[in-house]
Amino acid sequence: MSWESEMNKALQKFRKRDVPTFSGEVVSVDQEQGTCVVNDGDMDHPDVRLSAVIDGRKDAFYLFPVVGSSVLVAPINEDLKTLYVEQYSEVEQLYFNKRSTAFKANVNGFVIARGGEDLRTIIDDLVTEINKVNTEAQKIATKAGAADSVPKLVESYTKTEIIAARFKKVLAENN
Predict the structure, then answer these.
(1) Residue 102 CB: number of other CB atoms within 10 A?
(2) 120 Cβ partners below 8 Å, 6+ apart?
(3) What digits encode the pLDDT tens for the residues 61-95?
(4) Of 12, 16, 17, nearest in space to 80 by CA
(5) Of 69, 63, 105, 57, which is closest to residue 84 (Cα–Cα)?
(6) Apex 83 CA angle, 82 and 87, nearest 5
(7) In 3D, which of 91, 104, 126, 125 has the Cα closest to residue 170?
(8) For residue 167, how many other CB atoms are within 10 A of its CB?
(9) How far is it, in rounded angstroms, from Cα 111 to Cα 100?
(10) Gap between the Cα atoms of 99 and 17, Å rounded
């Protein structure tokens, strides 16, 4: 036997797992803990990890599966008490957090937040202030005898509201 074939055979033995990956159905998801419960058809497996490390840190990346969806589960270091999801059939939410920066994506849209602020709230506040200025400009134009400017200001106000509604289609509320 050649050296290459012996090496390949040795690598195959090395790669062989004593505890195989198994499929299951997601029973529940704990987003705070970053874990889920998976049923393999015979029994429930609690505290299945959704991230490589579950240690209470808020700096993390998670894919949260849909309850009732299928997942592939594997043991860490061949330990059936320490399992993680390695593949998802359906994802409910993507969550990323690093220090004070967070990003979430789900069917409701995106949340982009940093340091206690989130993009949707900032845009809502900006639109509110722009519309206040516009309303005051309409009053000033009317009093100053420039009433012909008011329809343009009203049109601008309406367009601002339409743009704000477009943002709300993409950006979800931070909750």
Answers:
(1) 17
(2) 111, 167, 168, 171, 172, 173, 174
(3) 999 999 999 999 999 888 888 999 999 999 999 99
(4) 17
(5) 63
(6) 160
(7) 104
(8) 15
(9) 13
(10) 36
Read off the tokens for 83. 């399992």
Q: What is the mean pLDDT of the chain?
A: 88
Task: Give the Å distances, CA to CA, from 175 to 103, 120, 121, 172.
Answer: 12, 12, 12, 9
| Residue 150 pLDDT | 83
Q: How many CA atoms lie within 13 A of 149 on its CB side?
A: 13
* DSSP codes of every residue in the chain: --HHHHHHHHHHHHH--SS--EEEEEEEEETTTTEEEEE-SS-EEEEEESSS--SS-S-EEEEEEPTT-EEEEEEETTEEEEEEEEEES-EEEEEEEETTEEEEEETTEEEEEETTEEHHHHHHHHHHHHHHHHHHHHHHHHHTT-GGGHHHHHHHHHHHHHHHHHHHHHBPP--
pLDDT in tens, 26-48: 999 999 899 999 999 999 999 99
**What pLDDT, on a 0 to 100 scale, did the predictor assign at position 84?**
95
Quickly tell me which residue has 């993009």 as its tokens: 119
Could you tell me which residues are beta bridge partners of residue 75? 83
| One-letter amino acid of 80 | L
pLDDT of residue 26: 98
